[in-house]
UniProtKB/TrEMBL annotation:
Domain PhoD-like phosphatase metallophosphatase: 137-465
Residue span, DUF7800 domain: 1-91
PANTHER family, sorted: METALLOPHOSPHATASE BINDING DOMAIN PROTEIN, PHOD-LIKE PHOSPHATASE METALLOPHOSPHATASE DOMAIN-CONTAINING PROTEIN
Protein's recorded name: PhoD-like phosphatase
Xref: InterPro entries: DUF7800, Metallo-depent_PP-like, PhoD-like_MPP, PhoD-like_sf
Amino acid sequence: MTALVLGPLLRHVADRSATIWVETDRPCEVRVLSAEHGVDAAARTFTAHGHHYALVEIEGLEPGARIPYSVTLDGETVWPEPGSRFPAATIRTMSAAGALRVSFGSCRRSPDRAGLHGLDALSAFAHELAGAGGADWPDVLLMVGDQIYADELGEEMRAYIGERRDPDVPPVGEVADFEEYTHLYKLAWCEDPAVRWLLSTVPTFTIFDDHDVRDDWNTSYAWRKEMWEQPWWRARITGGIGSYWIYQHLGNLSPAERATDPLYAAVRAASAEGADAGKLIDEFAERADKEPASTRWSYAHDWGGTRLIVVDSRCSRLLTADRRGMLDDDEFRWLDEQCHGGMEHLLIASSLPVLLPRTIHHAESWNEAMAAGAWGRRGARLAERLRQFADLEHWAAFDASFRALAEDVVAVARGERGEAPASISFLSGDIHYSYLAKVTAPKTRTTISQVVCSPLRNPLVGTFRRANQIAGSRATAWPFRMLARMAKVPPLPLKWRITEGPWFDNAIATVELSGSQCRVRWETPRSETSLDELGTATVC
């Protein structure tokens, strides 16, 4: 009997369509069924490096529908699992109007027996939803980075690696290739029944951050040169990007967008002929890393009066000996085109916060100027070492990109690109604490804010926590502001301050959009199966 390895995952959903993603243990036909709602959609698997995947596209649904479904593989029912204590998995389409709830978070380490990373906010959230019977569920679950940790492995992953290769051969303590990435995803999304159920019934969208590949991924041109000199890096980067394309990226796209993806067409054609498409995906992944403009990982979707723009701030970086940018030129042109008014709310998701605590922002902009030679060659070498040691590689460390994005957002807020929205919110993770920051100038009717929620399960401890608590203080900003000025960094184009937080607990946040109102709620696990409110705020 054909078995379900991972999934089903409810991925891209619109008002009349939905996508179900699965991994199986052999080639087969995957069918999604709901007899009472007339759903019967099927797809053949494709094969990559001996693994088998399918995306089943379901069309012709009704807006706002709630459709319990089952999954069969070659005619045998494999989902729902017999005896499950969770409600039936349900396809949840978008409503054309009304409130929108977006739950999000980042930085989720795999389970560990010692409980080093605390209670899992995503698992507790799943239990809370299961007990709520569909009331107040999010319309979207957005995972804004570090869905997996390829460079900080738990016990189970280390044991798996020890069974297939010498763990003392580089990369030591990290995954090496596509095969090991597949096991990471299985641990992250399948081992906990609550999380597996959650992903089967809440539409999920994602974007990667550094740990999905490696800590400090694409920090600088020097970092890239150093990594490509490692003999093991090619298998690592192609495995990381190739597995991301399968496990995360394809599900972010609408059926129409997938239909125009040349790699997806080539992979399906190869599998239709009985071939393994692993080589095609490896070649694509290497090209995507070496030539960022060759592919786009960012995407945008409109739901009712809300536009969500999800920005790739990792793989699409412009890093050459002469230029650096958070996004390459083509990617930034795309982002510029997506930033417009005419919507009630604009959400811009970036794994890396755009509006950091001011101390950290000034430190990173100063470091970038130093690394570019503002204080000479010796200062540049020191700055590069500091950049990699202290992870100084957020939007603030790409000053030209930060200013260009700020200019776009202000233009939208001033009504220069269509009717101004009620709110523009950046949704981010990465930094392992949560907060709300609000822009205080320029004055517009649009509220501009930064909402951060991190981590889902990987809290800062000890010295790292204390350092970030100090950095969050307004009193510590001025020395770094002076250093930035001394390095000839121009004055900031925006002013902002943290109005809620920071909180350093494991947490998940929910942004609630209704009419012209925007509210946000952070919750932290009280137990393995329940959440406590960490904080709430009215954005506008």
